[in-house]
Amino acid sequence: MPGIIDFHTHAFPDAVAVQAVPALAAKGKVTPCLDGRIESLLTSMNLAGVDKSVLCSIATRPGQFDSILAWSKSIRSERIIPFPSFHPENPKALENIRIIREEGFKGIKMHPYYQNFTIDEERMLPFYEAISAAGLILVMHTGFDIGFPREDIAGPARVRTVIDRFPSLKFIATHLGAWEMWDEVCDLLIGRKVYLDISFSLQYLDRDKVRQMMLDHPADRILFGTDSPWADQAEVATMLKSLELGEELEEKIFRTNGLALLGMD
User: Over the chain, what is the mean pLDDT?
Assistant: First the structure.
């Protein structure tokens, strides 16, 4: 099988990574596998057999759009596919979406906890409509977050509201639908037309449960993702293979679903 497509990674400019990764690690009480630099991610990709990584940025303040966009433009390559971010409180947010599309990016990353919104609140709906109309992919943090109090602002019921309202939106519910809300994922999202990435989830779930979730979901709607540097790309690949999903489904998850969604198949 050709190289893996990792649809969920993070990295920072070198000068930012030195402070950001230790701070985030302390906040979430997790140990990073990498130091957050692009060079380290590429090394990890080479070791794990990853061909391309989608690199997700998060605008944690309204004024960060321009700097994130500029950095995203500077790092994109055949192997690194940046997804910039805008902040919902930016008064030019709709224009930000237009610019992301015009600059040739494939998608956008958003995070309710770091960006202070609830997934299905009314003020977010015009953004989803614009993202969908632009044909962009939306990678959305879903479920609880390891570094924040357990307030349900990104749960499966809220995801369901959005995908039902915007059926053409290319919505990726990260962490296998919603981190540590997987019973609700089974009830509300499994079997629906929503993309799920497997990032930061296999290591928290019973093998039989996660295997059945994947078998019950549309085969073309599951994406390999790691959340690197918070998980090791090679280790996540090994965990996925251990589920014994069958060669055809495994290849879809590892590569062909990601390429198709990116328009690179």
Answer: 97
